[in-house]
Amino acid sequence: MNYPWLDKFLLSHKGTKKDFKVEWQWTRYLVGGKMFAAICKNNNGNDTIVTLKLDPLDGDFLRKQFEDINPGYYMNKKHWNSVNLDGDVPDEILKDMADKSYHLVFNGLSKKLQNEIKNSID
Fold first, then answer.
1. What range defines the domain where residue 15 resides?
2. Is residue 100 assigned to a domain?
3. 51 in the Ramachandran plot: left (φ > 0), alpha (ψ -120 to 50) or beta?
4. Is 81 within 8 Å of 71 (Cβ atoms)?
5. Among 25, 32, 17, 33, which Cα is nearest to 51's?
6. Burial 93-110 (b: 16+ CB within 10 A, else e)
7. Residue ranges for the chain with pLDDT beneath 50
8. For the chain, what is the domain count?
9. So what's the pLDDT on residue 120?
10. How far apart are CA 105 and CA 77, in angstroms?
């Protein structure tokens, strides 16, 4: 994997919780109980892709720029994008995608839940 910092970066977002769905072989990153990222394992147990939510126009633009960014694996292909973790997407692009994914999901939460997360002590 070319992004050893990814787990720590995803967890650095306020209110993020992490779990592992055994049946999917996905490590999920959630805010307010909603997933904003998933790191998916292959049959050998190695992390192979991270799937992130983006505005459809942003996702389409990035897919055209980088061959290692594709429509979301097992997700809505319009809103979710998968990044090959053995690829060559620049770190700053992947960090920006993760930030945007977090904020899209966070902003979709109720105002009450947003305020609880903002005011929580991590």
1. 6-112
2. yes
3. beta
4. yes
5. 25
6. ebeebbebbbebbbeebe
7. none
8. 1
9. 87
10. 16
Q: Is residue 121 part of a domain?
A: no
pLDDT at 122: 63
Domain-embedded: residue 120: no
Pairing of strands 80-84, 26-31: unpaired
pTM for this entry: 0.93
Residues 6 or more apart whose Cβ sits within 8 Å of residue 34: 105, 108, 109
Of the candidates 48, 15, 41, the one whose C-alpha atom is nearest the C-alpha of residue 29 is 15
- Determine, yes or no, domain membership for 77: yes
Strand partners, 47: 41
CATH of the domain at 75: 3.90.1150.30
Can you tell me the distance from the alpha carbon of 63 to that of 58, in angstroms, rounded to the nearest whole number? 9
Q: Please, how many CA atoms are within 13 Å of residue 1, restricted to the half-sphere of its CB?
A: 17
